[in-house]
Amino acid sequence: VAGPFGTQVLGDLGATVIKVNALRDPWWHCTHIAMGANRGKRSIGINLKTAAGMAVLHRLVERADVVHSNMRYKAALRLGVDEVSMRAINPALIYCHTRGFEDGPRSDSPANDQTGNALSGTQYEDGGMSDGGVPFWSLTSMGDTGNGFLSAIGVIQALYHRRRTGIGQRVDTSIINAGMLTTSYAALDADGNGLPRPRLDGMQRGISALYRLYETADGWLCLAAVTEAHWHALVGALGHAELSSDARFATPQSRSANDPALIAVLDGVFAAKSASDWFSLLDEHGVPCEISDEEFADHFFDDAEMIAARRVVTYDHPELGRFDHAGLQIDFSDTPGRVWGPPPLVGQHTREIMREFGFADDDIDALCAEKAVFETMSVND
Predict the structure, then answer these.
(1) Per DSSP, what are the bridge partners of residue 96?
(2) Which of 63, 87, 101, 362 lies 20 to 30 angstroms, CA to CA, from 202?
(3) Burial class of residue 148, CB neighbours in 10 A (0-12, 13-18, 19+)
């Protein structure tokens, strides 16, 4: 996912992205994973195991700014799409490689989001295992998508460097890098203050009484009262002024020392009303909180606010029909991004792209006939 996602980010920001697809099962490219990481791209189908197919690829590389590879590097070497081979064709090229592991014993091992989460400590930290919890399997793909984001940032930096110097370079990112980035605040002590870092509890509900999920009469409320002002506002909103004068909770230090007792008190308080009632009351008093909405995914794509802010986009897919997708997540005042269209079918733009790169229709027909390139494949092929 990392390579497709990173290039999708670049496409949203205005890059022209050509996806080189292999002659393989097109069903994979209609999964929700592929659909979520390939919008706005054009697809050319090339059989890289043929000399004629490689010649087509080389013509694309001659004019490319970036080659972005998501395969294990040994596979790239076997196919001849490694950095040295690509930059021999275009010395100013940026070659980006999103991998699973860093250089070392595991550099050529298969990897994915969850194995990266295990190795980087994400599953341990998010599972509250230091407090008796179990490893946490997250459905949010922070390793893969994080790796993709890192690659997009790296490519932009490399392009900026090339603009100033004329020199291309290699950009390497990994799932482990992304995992370490997203867990860094949880995995490190604050420098020099001697305080232990906060750890998630074994129930995976929070790291303290005031930074925690609470079960209400009909759902869950996320409380994030992180300052002393928030604490006093919370006490007022709850209607429990006695908590402020309780010696166990009077100061941040005493609250920390008596955290289990405060959790027990707040558990009982929050259970008395609905999540929406608590949200309205706490929000009115300036206490940071939010309802943990189990139905959010069901109404996200129909939310008027999300649609108006372009956080949601809808387009027609040639085989799937209406397709809803999370939209642009970065706003620019003068150079807004754009979603260029749905994810492509495998080989959908082969002829169009080859014409742009100087191939005549007769040449394209001949290359298709010898299976060096191929045009649109559907899930029904």
Answers:
(1) 68, 171
(2) 101
(3) buried
* DSSP state letter for 197: P
Rounded Cα gap, residues 76 and 69, in angstroms: 8
Written as one letter, the residue type at 176 is I
Q: How far apart are CA 279 and CA 277, in angstroms?
A: 5
pTM, two decimal places: 0.85
Dihedrals phi, psi of 256, to nearest 5 degrees? -65, -40
DSSP 51: H
Please tell me the predicted confidence (pLDDT) of residue 19. Answer: 96
Q: Please tell me the distance from the alpha carbon of residue 103 to that of residue 106, in angstroms, as a whole number.
A: 7
The pLDDT-based confidence of 289 (bands split at 50, 70, 90) is very high
Superfamily of domain 2-183+305-374: Crotonobetainyl-coa:carnitine coa-transferase; domain 1 (3.40.50.10540)
Report the alpha-carbon distance of residue 221 to residue 223 in Å, rounded: 6
What residue segments make up the domains of the chain, in order of their start? 2-183+305-374, 206-293
Which fold is adopted by the domain 206-293? formyl-coa transferase, domain 3 (3.30.1540)
Do 138 and 174 touch, CB atoms closer than 8 A?
no
CA nearest to 208, candidates 220, 224, 184: 224
Total count of residues recorded for the chain: 381
**342-356 as b/e: b if 16+ CB within 10 A:** bbbbbbbbbbebbee
3-state secondary structure 272-317: CCCHHHHHHHHHHCCCCEEEECCCHHHHHHHCHHHHHCCCEEEEEE
Query: Under a CB-based contact definition with an 8 Å cutoff, are residues 113 and 175 in contact?
Result: yes
**Residues 6+ away with beta carbon under 8 Å from 283:** 289
Mean pLDDT of the chain: 88
What whole-number distance in Å separates Cα of residue 188 and Cα of residue 219?
Answer: 33
Percent of the chain past pLDDT 90, that is, above it, reads 57
